[in-house]
Amino acid sequence: MANILKFPENHAGTKRQAFLQDSDDTLHFDDQSAAGDHRFPLPTKKSYLEFGKLRAKDWSNQELANLFRVKRLLDAAGVPNEIDRGITDEGDPWFLFCDANGDVFIHLCRLDGVYVLDSPNINAPLRGRDFNALIEEFTARKVTGEAATSDTQRVVRLERNGKVFLHPSTMLAALVWTLFMAAEDLVVIMPEEGAGASEPDLSDDLVPVSGTGGQDTDFDPLQLALQDRGMQDDDATPGSFMSQNANDMDAFNEEKIGQNTYAIGLSAIAISLGFMSETQVTDVDAITLESILAMISGQDNAAEAGIGILDDFGLVQNGAQEFLAALTQFFDEVSLAARDEKEPGALDLDAHQGPDLMNQVQAFIDGIENQVSAFLHEQEQPRDAQPSVEVSQTALDTETVQETLAEQTDASAQETVQVVQMLSRFGLVDVSGNLETNAREYTFDNNTVVATFDVNARDLEKAADLITGSLEAGEPEQDVINVDLGAPSGQQNQFQAYDDAAYEFITFLMSKDNDLEMIATGNELILLDPEVFNVATEDTFTASWTLENGDVISTIGLRSDYEAYDLVG
Amino acid sequence: MLAELHKTSPEETKEQRVTLGLWLRSLREEQGLSQRELADILSLDYYTFISQLENGRGKIPTHRYVEWANALGQNPQDFVRMLLKHYEPMTYRVLFEDEAS
């Protein structure tokens, strides 16, 4: 007969659960001879109060929402992954992304308010106060590393005054995606979308094996990435992409292609953010559909690739719109995913994330649409005139693009001069040298302003408030900062005389690492620390100073900065 | 035969790692170390890695086995044998179970 377990008798006066806390209980390994007689007690008991303190440092709902959104994006992109999370004995939280075998691929934790992200694919952990900072550090390392290794490779990124603004979780997903994949692996992904198109330039070790392969054709880019790094177990997975016949790609069904739309979307984001690139694009403004496709395809030079790259992808003329439609679909589904998200532990997530994300996505899509339209417009004339001479046609296109860029640069230079002139009135020209004052003129509610960022495209109710002074109720406080220079909202609104203290503070703002944004309107110059977009409203502060001639300079930044300069009254 | 040995399933692997994680935690607590203190001894970049391991996720890097054994006050050979038992149970059986029987 089997042994019968006997529970201790519940004597009078003992706690009802006392039998669960018998200090004599020990766990034993079956084979203790192998490593000595190891016994270990049950985990140390903690009081509810202690648990409460530990849980207080755990991931917030907002953080979990972002992380689960990353997982949803990876799932949609066909990356087999699982997640896990926990807290340390001090309560610091960690979050893992694991591969299909359960091996940890991303370790993310928050220690003393600083996020730390580690992966086998990076030399040292990334650190940052928010996800954007992690991404910036990764991008900065790419720039530094690649500059050190090769002069011909450049990383292209859209700068803070560019036009692409994405939800942090989308960017984090792109970063995780990048770490899952190596940049060179991207060339293996793309042919699936353009089934039937010519094969891109594959390096020798990435040419698909032409055997029959396994019957299971599940797209599994992670297996490929791990295999390439020797992290995969010895018994190769039959479904890995490497073992597939390249000709079988036509057989991928709609579902697989649909999933791959996410892969392309993440790749496009990763490239536009500068996570990965093998090619050189001379100017940020020159980033177009063409250049992104060229980078994805692994072409050595985006300019030389010319419009032929669209042919390679089967995206001639209308095809470009198809690609755009795919991207649009990708972002639409991201928005839907955000709204439908009902992950464990994140049931009461903020309801405003959906609309907010959609705004950001719409801004991104608008930017892409503009680029595609401009590209197609430039493309039409040369194609009609010389349809058979691709080389000269490419040259024409390049010239057109260069001329357009030159015109834009001239216009931008003039408007930049306006900002610099405004700065000079406040004696700030000398310290503005390190700023990127790529100012443009924008019309905003019949007001013409010159700004270093797109006040129209950005989801900036903040910018609207800055200029119009209007406040709208019901806006999500995490994502929109209401700044009203003229209303008594607890912030310092009395315009003091511009003095040395103001000069010192503004000099400090300009010397911060992040790019200071500027808006010039009439006789007022507004300096905006981009960090305010990442913090809650109560952590921001504004101050204005005026010259004797009536010129006003206003600053919007982190409250802590103002406090450091004793400017918070 | 070795060629016919099946790979352990992810569930089995996870079970092995969880068991080992509990063992690692017990060793640390026997030494009177917090997770942060152990991470400091091992010069880890982030001490949450200790918590991760103790929760049955990930592996101790091979090149640091001896340092871990010393930090936890264990004989390196016995320590590594225990790791092998849970990280590579097949290998462990082939190497040591015949020897034991």
Question: Helices, strands, pairings?
Answer:
The complex is a heterodimer of chains A (569) and B (101).
Chain A: E1 27-28, E2 39-40, H1 48-56, H2 61-76, E3 82-87, E4 93-98, E5 104-111, E6 114-118, E7 126-128, H3 131-149, H4 168-180, H5 186-189, H6 221-228, H7 254-272, H8 289-297, H9 302-305, H10 308-312, H11 318-340, H12 353-385, H13 390-425, E8 440-444, E9 447-451, H14 461-468, E10 496-497, H15 500-511, E11 517-521, E12 524-528, E13 540-546, E14 552-558, H16 559-564
Parallel strand pairs in A: 10-13, 12-14
Antiparallel strand pairs in A: 1-2, 3-4, 4-5, 5-6, 6-7, 8-9, 9-11, 11-12, 13-14
Helix pairs in contact in A: 2-4, 2-7, 3-4, 4-7, 7-8, 7-11, 11-12, 12-13
Chain B: H1 10-30, H2 35-41, H3 48-54, H4 65-71, H5 76-87, H6 89-100
Helix pairs in contact in B: 1-5, 2-3, 5-6
Structural overview:
In chain A, the strands form three sheets. A seven-stranded mixed beta sheet of chain A has the order 8-9-11-12-14-13-10. The longest helix of chain A has 36 residues, at 390-425. Chain A has helices spanning 48-56, 61-76, 131-149, 168-180, 186-189, 221-228, 254-272, 289-297, 302-305, 308-312, 318-340, 353-385, 390-425, 461-468, 500-511, 559-564, and strands at 27-28, 39-40, 82-87, 93-98, 104-111, 114-118, 126-128, 440-444, 447-451, 496-497, 517-521, 524-528, 540-546, 552-558. Helices cover 39% and strands 12% of the residues of chain A. In chain A, helix 2 (61-76) packs across helix 4, helix 7 (254-272) packs across helix 8 (289-297) and helix 12 (353-385) crosses helix 13. Chain B is mainly alpha-helical and 101 residues long. Helix content of chain B is 65%, strand content 0%. Chain B has six helices and no strands. Chain B has helices spanning 10-30, 35-41, 48-54, 65-71, 76-87, 89-100.
